[in-house]
Design brief:
The protein is mainly beta and about 200 residues long. The chain has one domain. The chain is about 10% helix and about 45% strand. It contains 2 helices and 12 strands, in the order βββββαβββββββα. The strands form 2 sheets. Strands 6-7-8-9-12-11-10 form a 7-stranded antiparallel beta sheet, with no helix packed on it. Strands 1-2-5-4-3 form a 5-stranded antiparallel beta sheet. The longest helix is centred in the last third of the chain and has 12 residues. The protein is globular. The two termini are about 25 Å apart.
């Protein structure tokens, strides 16, 4: 499946029913996640509308030469988290360098055989339990969301880009006290996707 990378928005308000018509669901209180391309960089960003933020922090993902997670204020001084990757490095990255991991609380990743993917667990400021997943066919992000503690299950929805299915987005609830609630954005990242990204990268 071709991944037509343009600047696009995923407007998500929490509704626990499918929206149909190749539309993404939406999450109350969250702006994003967005996937953006800027020069030679792939960006994933999302903003928490009701949480004010003044300070900034940056975390370099140690397994990469040019991959960072940034916490800081949005244009409206709200809490924003942003991932930045060099596109070529992302395409060429050897996922054999990464251990197989589950969700941060050790529950299985929905839809994955064995419940795991190559990935990185890390902590940064407000996002103590975060994960990045990168395999031959998937690029994923787990972002903890404290307000999801009121939900008691995992609910997944198809994720669309330009009306084409491009992965899934899952609301991870808190089934037991030790569980970590959050959003799992899992994008298709197969060879067709990488070819599209490489074409974009070569044009910069």
């Amino acid at each position: 499946m071709k991944f037509f990378f343009t600047t696009f928005n995923l407007f998500i308000f929490l509704t626990l029913i499918s929206c149909g018509n190749n539309k993404n669901i939406s999450i109350e209180g969250i702006d994003g996640p967005y996937i953006l391309l800027s020069d030679q960089t792939l960006i994933m960003t999302m903003t928490f509308k009701n949480i004010k933020q003044e300070s900034e922090a940056s975390y370099k993902l140690p397994q990469f030469q040019n991959a960072y997670v940034e916490i800081g204020p949005s244009n409206n001084q709200e809490l924003s988290i942003t991932y930045r990757f060099n596109i070529l490095e992302l395409i060429e990255f050897d996922d054999g360098k990464l251990p197989l991991i589950n969700l941060p609380d050790e529950r299985g990743i929905p839809g994955m055989v064995g419940g795991s993917l190559p990935g990185i667990d890390f902590a940064i400021n407000n996002f103590e339990y975060s994960s990045l997943y990168l395999s031959a066919n998937h690029l994923g992000f787990f972002i903890p969301v404290a307000s999801f503690e009121k939900f008691y299950s995992m609910t997944s929805f198809d994720y669309f880009i330009n009306n084409k299915k491009a992965g899934s987005i899952t609301m991870i609830g808190k089934e037991q006290n030790h569980h970590i609630p959050g959003i799992l954005l899992l994008l298709d990242f197969d060879q067709d996707v990488k070819d599209d990204l490489l074409t974009y990268f070569s044009s910069r």
